[in-house]
Amino acid sequence: MGICRAAAKIENVVDREQAATIPKMLVDTGSESTWVPATTLEKIGVKREKKDLAFVMANGQQITRSVGFAKVRVDKAVTVDEVVFAEKRRSAARSTQS
Known about the structure:
Layout: E1 3-12, E2 19-28, E3 33-37, H1 38-43, E4 50-56, E5 62-74, E6 77-86, E7 93-97
Parallel strand pairs: 3-6
Antiparallel strand pairs: 1-2, 1-5, 3-7, 4-5, 4-7, 5-6
Organism: Prosthecobacter vanneervenii
Keywords: Hydrolase, Protease
Protein name: Putative aspartyl protease
C-alpha cells in the first residue's frame, strides 16, 4: 500500500463536457473509495445516487456520506467509479467503505 498525489480529471458520466481537474489528488492504493469535494461534484452535475453510506476512516471514526458515479482519469488510465461527496474538511482522496 502507498500514498501519492496525481492530477485527476473527474467527469460527469452523462455529460463528459462537465468535468473538473484536481491537480494534486491524494491517491491511497489501500483505499476502496474515491473521495471528491462535494462542491466539485455538484458543479459538474454528478447526482447523489446513494445516501447515508457508512465509511470507517483511518482513525476508526465512522461517518456517513452520499455517493454518486463519475468517470475518473489519471494519465492514460480511466474508469467509471463510485465517488464519495467529501465535506470541506476532507480533501480529494480514497478511503474504506464499511
